[in-house]
Design brief:
Elements (H helix, E strand, L loop, with lengths): L2 H25 L12 H4 L17 H6 L14 E5 L3 E6 L5 E12 L2 E9 L7 E9 L13 E2 L4 E3 L5 E9 L4 E10 L4 E10 L5 E11 L16 E5 L6 E3 L1 H6 L3 E5 L2 E6 L2 E7 L4 E9 L5 E8 L2 E3 L4 E12 L2 H7 L13 H18 L2 H15 L1 H16 L1 H11 L3 H15 L8 H19 L23 H16 L6 H18 L4 H26 L8
Parallel strand pairs: 1-7
Antiparallel strand pairs: 1-2, 2-3, 3-4, 5-11, 6-8, 8-9, 9-10, 10-20, 11-18, 11-19, 12-13, 12-15, 14-17, 15-16, 16-20, 17-18
Length: about 550
């Protein structure tokens, strides 16, 4: 197999994989079968959205009435909310259940064209619903403050952080029998974490068995959450001691209800660049669950429910948990919970991609620009693989010298493939040329280049990051298509430096490859195309240098 043919196969396979993933994401979705389930509000009105092995308290008239106030229900009246604004978050907390129903990320505008409009990660709007719900449930068929229960806010309706520190937002609830619950949500300056704490005082005449649950509920991805041409994972994730990163797609949630014991884990809903996660206290035992709520606007749920503890008469108890709602910044995620940084999903090449991001991040710390960081990272990688490239280009130079003899064999044996193949191998043996010599060194480098590709695609740091001139956002396509044109030109020059295929049909196909790839890459994020342009340019420079100065001017056989 010659080098040109190998490159063709690899390139087409790479594009085929991307097209297949996009098709799977957009068109291969199995639609849910209509069921006899009630509307979401009534279904989740019971105080136990946990697995079925936990006793479920029947919906009392009070609880059923609360169902109309479910966040995100188009027919529900608007519930009072408390707005909290820190230096990085603008949060709306509903007085119904203390649900985190809206989160705006103040440091992440919607687009460079709308710099004053923060990106909305959580929303109670039916068109793009994603909420972080939590509550308590009782196993004694007693009322408990679920995420559907109206709570009393004991503070102001709007709190703006002016001088750092923390902001505590308390809500209270009292049962008919005297059980008092205070739910407090705490936000910190510069943090995407929200602490949630329940303080329980049992003033009733009997013990109160209770546990806590927290869940993330969303609709399917909307068009503005998807990337152009290349789609990254949008769905649920479960982490525990046995499986630190288990993706549970929305289709999986439709197919089956999950129920799994979890210690030291977390649940999350992730999308490109951003994540929302519930993180329990350390060493807390939980049961992770998923639910699909079939209704007018289908909802997908992943959550955790804790073990039950009994609050004695006159006694107290406390439950605590925290939510992470923000960008997928690896250092921030790792500090929030073990393995949460895995939501920056580089796929099966993570073992290579993570060191590459470390290198990219360190270079960015020196140059202060992600575009130049991409360029210098590519330079470092090419330098690291210089010796392999040298061996590859030497082999290709030898192959180029053999092109006239190979053409002569083609004329002599015509369509007799057996004789042509034998004569070709004899020629390689006589000239001491390994036809795979130009391929094998390149094969070693391919995983590194693909890993860097996914590193650039998944890193939120490149979102709306400018380079220079007209490139104002490395995460979207080049608006003037200059980089894709340069990529096509560099690919064409590379072709001219390599030995042409003997087969005339292959030669014609290769002539159109730069144009085809230029069209494909026109839809790619500018940061990715910049990487390919720099990589191709460095390859041309390396090949020219090695061919001219290491091997010679091409008029004599390489040593």
């Amino acid at each position: 197999m010659d080098t040109q043919r190998l490159l063709l196969y690899m390139a087409l396979s790479f594009l085929g994989l991307i097209l297949y993933q996009t098709w799977q994401h957009d068109y291969n979705r199995v639609e849910p079968v209509p069921t006899e389930l009630a509307a979401e509000g009534v279904t989740t009105a019971t105080p136990a959205p946990a697995p079925a092995d936990l006793p479920q308290a029947a919906g009392t008239p009070t609880q059923t009435a609360q169902a109309s106030a479910v966040p995100g229900n188009a027919s529900a009246p608007a519930a009072p909310a408390v707005r909290v604004k820190t230096d990085v978050l603008d949060v709306s907390i509903s007085s119904v259940g203390g649900t985190i129903e809206s989160v705006l990320l103040l440091d992440y505008p919607v687009s460079i064209k709308k710099p004053d409009e923060p990106f909305t990660l959580l929303s109670n709007k039916p068109s793009r619903f994603l909420a972080a719900e939590s509550g308590l449930q009782s196993r004694a068929n007693e009322p408990a403050p679920t995420h559907l229960t109206p709570l009393t806010s004991t503070g102001p309706n709007e709190i703006i952080m002016n001088d750092g520190g923390t902001i505590a937002v308390p809500f209270s609830w009292v049962s008919d029998k005297g059980v008092e619950v205070t739910k407090t949500l705490t936000l910190k300056a510069g943090s995407y974490e929200i602490d949630v704490e329940y303080n329980i005082v049992n003033n009733s005449n009997e013990p109160w068995p209770v546990n806590q649950y927290r869940q993330l509920k969303r609709k399917r991805a909307t068009s503005d959450e998807k990337q152009q041409f290349v789609n990254t994972y949008i769905g649920a994730v479960l982490s525990n001691d046995e499986d630190i990163y288990n993706k549970i797609s929305l289709g999986d949630i439709e197919d089956d209800n999950l129920s799994e014991e979890v210690t030291n884990g977390w649940v999350a809903m992730i999308q490109h660049y951003f994540a929302a996660a519930w993180i329990p206290s350390e060493n807390e035992n939980n049961t992770a669950y998923t639910r699909f709520v079939s209704s007018a606007d289908n909802r997908y749920i992943i959550g955790m429910v804790s073990d039950t503890q009994s609050v004695p008469v006159g006694g107290t108890a406390k439950f605590s948990t925290k939510a992470y709602i923000g960008p997928k910044i690896q250092k921030t995620l790792a500090a929030a919970a073990p393995n949460l940084d895995l939501t920056v999903d580089y796929g099966w090449l993570s073992i290579i991609a993570r060191p590459l991001f470390w290198l990219l991040d360190k270079i960015h710390g020196l140059v202060g620009n992600w575009g130049w960081a991409i360029i210098f990272t590519t330079v470092v990688i090419k330098a690291f693989f210089y010796k392999l490239s040298e061996a590859s280009y030497k082999s290709m130079a030898r192959m180029k010298l053999l092109q006239p003899k190979l053409a002569s064999l083609k004329e002599r044996y015509g369509d007799d493939r057996a004789k042509m193949g034998q004569a070709t191998m004899d020629l390689y043996k006589k000239e001491k040329v390994n036809p795979l010599g130009g391929c094998l060194p390149m094969l070693v480098q391919i995983p590194v280049f693909i890993a860097l590709y996914w590193t650039l695609l998944e890193s939120v740091e490149l979102r709306q990051a400018p380079w220079m001139f007209h490139i104002k956002d490395l995460s979207i396509k080049d608006p003037l298509f200059i980089l894709p044109v340069l990529m096509a030109v560099s690919m064409y020059i590379q072709q001219k430096l390599n030995p042409a295929p003997v087969d005339p049909i292959q030669a014609k196909v290769f002539q159109f490859l730069p144009l085809i790839f230029g069209v494909f890459f026109a839809m790619f994020p500018a940061g990715l195309v910049l990487y390919w342009v720099v990589n191709n340019t460095l390859s041309i420079m390396q090949q020219y240098y090695i061919t001219r100065y290491v091997i010679g001017d091409g008029t004599k056989k390489a040593k």
